[in-house]
Structure formats: C-alpha cells, structure tokens
Specification:
With about 350 residues, the chain is of the alpha/beta class. About 45% of the residues lie in helices and about 15% in strands. Helix 7 links the parallel strand 6 and strand 7.
Length: about 350
C-alpha cells in the first residue's frame, strides 16, 4: 500500500503544480474590461459602411468578456486605402481596433497599385454582416431609367466613384471596359453618402454600390421613383429586384464576362469585411470572431438591421480569409488585364 500511496501523492503534487488554463475568454476578461474598442470605417458618415458599423458597435460589446465600450471613427479617403494602410502600419495589434473597409483593396495589392502599404493576406478577419449585392442606380432626371436607355445614351453618363481599388470604382471601370454602356467615371468622393448628394444635385447621373445600402439610405428617392436601379452587378438577381437585368448579360465577349465575375462578383463577397491588424494575439482574434458571430444572431441587432432596412447574411472570418487568398490565384494574364482596366 505504501508504494501506491506514494504514487498517488506524486500524481497529486504534479496536478497541483500544473498551470491553471482558463477557458477561452476568462483570461481576457480583465484585459477588455473598462477598455474601448474602436471600429475604423474607411468611408464617410451616412453610408452603408458607416451604418452597419454603428449598429454593430451598439450590440457587440456585450458578447465580449469584460463588456468593453465600442465606438466608431470614420477615416475616409483614397478609396478606403487610407484606413487600410493605417490599420496595417499604425494600429497597435492588441484587439482594441477593428477595421471596416472594402475587401476589394485586395485588387490594389494584386496589381501593385502605388500607395498600397498592406498585405491583405496578413489581416485577421472577423467576418462580414452580408455579402454585398452591387447594383447601379440613377436619378430619373439623368434620363437613364433602364439598361436600354443607358445603352442608347448619346454621351457617357457621369458616375460617381470613391477611389482606386474601391468596389464602386472597380465595378464602374469594369463595366466601362467589359460592356458597351457609355460611362464617365468621376471619382474622389468620400463615400456613397456624398455620391448620393451629388446625384440629387445633378452633378452626377448615378453610381454603383450595394443594394442593401441603396435601399436603406436612398429610400425616399426609390419610393418616389426619383431613384431607379437599372442593372444588378451581381451573380444572380436579388429577390427585391426580380425584373432588373444582370450586368454580366451585357458583357461584350467572354473575357469581359470573366472580368465581371472575378472583379465584381468576387468583390461582392468580401466587400464588407471586419478585420484586425496582423499579429493580433490569436486568443483575442478568436474572442472577437466569436463575439462578431454572436452579434449577427443577436435579436436586438437583427431588429436594428430590420428597422434600418439593411440585409443580413453573415460570412465567417474563415470564409473571408479563404476568399481573399483566392484572389491571389488569378492567372497572371488576368492580373495584367485588371491593372490595365482598373488603374490604366
């Protein structure tokens, strides 16, 4: 019995000497408690990016151990490249800063666009509230009330953009090259909210951006008939827009249709990414990923999005990461064409 007792005592001592491993989140509660998490939005206030971020900021904190406060800061400029560069180069990777800018910044990196100072493959992806469904909308005053009217226009229609690499610009530039729609891109706006104002003032005829953003922020124009969605720049028709044609059906050749699929359809999926700086501790990444996913299912958040007329179709951080990496598998020939079309 004595040897057995010695063994039991030895095992007990070893157990007592083992470090205590807290469950995921418990060890980080003291870190997040009393802290403020900042969401940096790469667009101006009032647009879809800003609206989603503010709704998320209201509800996500309670799903994070320590219940931190979450605020939103807008950092528009250069087609959201300023926000992307800031998150990559300046932000401390401690889990207290979340970026929200277009995943289509990947195209900037892919073709070597000057000013690109980040590697989209190194960010930590939390998720996205929805895959975007880009559509092109115009004012009735522009005269572009249908795809046929657009094709028949005697002069290029003025369409507002945000900057190189932004999906709004990428969509418009791709359509200008891949279809026969006459287009003049006027870029440099700080987001879709300023673009809408310019459309209403008659400075622009239209633009292309996410349908959920269009219906949430341009509601009165749509309901009055002063705003009209003419084509859908997406892989399939939205249930809200059953009679509006798809842009890919207007591709002038097979290469054009391939580019529409790669740039626009692929960009729709990663457009509304939420992400963390590279080298953020993995345990904090997992905590925030889980909190983001729980926020997407939170009844109060769902009610908020319904009230704001915003859609929901959450995408996981892992799926965003896979999609971003997929861009880098595009053939070199297609990359060269992208550089010519989007930045030439």
């Amino acid at each position: 019995m004595a040897p057995r007792n010695l063994v039991l005592k030895f095992v007990l001592c070893m157990i007592l000497l083992l470090p205590i491993q807290p469950a995921l989140g418990q060890g980080q509660e003291s870190f997040f408690e009393g802290k403020t998490i900042r969401i940096i939005v790469g667009a101006a206030p009032g647009g879809g990016f800003d609206t989603y971020a503010r709704l998320i900021s209201r509800r996500m904190g309670k799903h994070i151990p320590g219940n931190p406060t979450i605020i939103v800061d807008n950092m528009p400029g250069a087609g959201m490249m300023i926000a992307a560069n800031h998150l990559y180069k300046v932000t401390k990777p401690d889990g207290l800063t979340i970026g929200h800018f277009t995943g289509s910044q990947t195209i900037n990196q892919l073709v070597g666009q000057p000013g690109t100072e980040f590697d989209m493959r190194k960010f930590e992806y939390l998720g996205a509230p929805i895959a975007d469904h880009f559509s092109c909308a115009f004012t009735r005053a522009s005269g572009v009330t249908s795809a046929d009217r657009w094709l028949a226009s005697k002069k290029p229609v003025k369409m507002g953009g945000i900057g190189p690499g932004n999906l709004t610009d990428n969509t418009i530039r791709t359509l200008r090259w891949a279809t026969r729609f006459p287009i003049q891109l006027v870029s440099g706006y700080k987001g879709t909210a300023p673009i809408r104002l310019a459309m209403e003032a008659g400075e622009l005829d239209g633009s292309c951006w996410g349908w959920d953003s269009i219906k949430a922020t341009w509601t009165k124009a749509l309901e009055s008939g002063e705003g009209i969605v003419v084509i859908q720049a997406a892989a399939k028709r939205h249930a809200d827009l059953p009679k509006v044609p798809l842009a890919i059906d207007f591709g002038k050749d097979e290469e054009g249709r391939q580019l529409i699929d790669a740039v626009i359809h692929g960009g729709n999926i990663v457009e509304r990414s939420y992400l963390l700086p590279p080298a953020t501790p993995k345990d904090r990444v997992e905590i925030l990923r889980r909190a983001f996913a729980r926020t997407m299912e939170d009844p109060e958040f769902v009610a908020d999005t319904n009230k704001a007329k915003l859609g929901l179709g959450p995408i996981s951080g892992e799926e965003l990461e896979r999609r971003i990496n997929g861009f880098f598998k595009l053939p070199q020939k297609l990359r060269a064409r992208l550089k010519e079309i989007l930045f030439g």
